[in-house]
């Protein structure tokens, strides 16, 4: 899969921990794939693989990794829907506001669909090392890792209700489909 090669190329060598996280998010997205058509399941898997490309040092231009990743993906001709999913993943619009970059994301539409929720769920229930965690554990770890004064900690507090809602909607769908996700 091209998304796999892209993510391995940009993250695998220089950001091995981020690469483990991304592989975990990919695995998580595969758990949810029965909720979607084959095309959408593949899109979700691809989004899981490329959602954090903007952390690659060579691609980190603005410091808002969702935006940097989406811009790079657009440059290399990735489908627009995939770029938009990356641009808005895991409540990026709130981090953009905190960084004074809210206008930069208007290029992309946040589709607010079950697929978008499932990407957020996969990201928010995968640890930095790629292990499955609860959303509460994930949010607590982010705050601890960045420390109280970092914009990311402020962001995760502000984003908590929105993230928890997306996680909750996806987990309700998984339960309804009889899919074991823990
Ligand atoms: Fe992530």
From TrEMBL:
Domain HD: 19-96
Top-level taxon of the source organism: Bacteria
Official protein name in the record: Metal-dependent phosphohydrolase, HD subdomain protein
CDD domains referenced in this protein's UniProt entry, alphabetically: HDc (cd00077)
Any Pfam family the entry gives: HD
Entry-linked InterPro entries: HD/PDEase_dom, HD_domain
Organism annotation: Amycolatopsis oliviviridis
């Amino acid at each position: 899969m091209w998304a796999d090669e892209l993510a391995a190329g940009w993250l695998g060598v220089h950001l091995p921990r981020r690469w483990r996280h991304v592989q975990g998010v990919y695995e998580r997205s595969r758990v949810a794939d029965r909720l979607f058509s084959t095309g959408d399941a593949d899109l979700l898997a691809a989004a899981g693989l490329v959602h954090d490309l903007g952390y690659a040092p060579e691609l980190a231009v603005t410091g808002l990794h969702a935006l940097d990743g989406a811009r790079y993906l657009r440059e290399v001709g990735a489908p627009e829907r995939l770029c938009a999913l990356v641009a808005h993943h895991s409540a990026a619009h709130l981090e953009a506001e905190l960084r004074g970059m809210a206008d930069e994301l208007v290029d992309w539409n946040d589709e607010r669909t079950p697929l978008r929720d499932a990407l957020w769920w996969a990201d928010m229930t995968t640890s930095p090392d790629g292990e499955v965690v609860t959303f509460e554990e994930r949010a607590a770890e982010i705050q601890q890792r960045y420390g109280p004064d970092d914009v990311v900690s402020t962001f995760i507090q502000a984003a908590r209700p929105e993230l928890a809602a997306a996680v909750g909607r996806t987990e309700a769908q998984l339960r309804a489909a009889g899919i074991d996700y823990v």
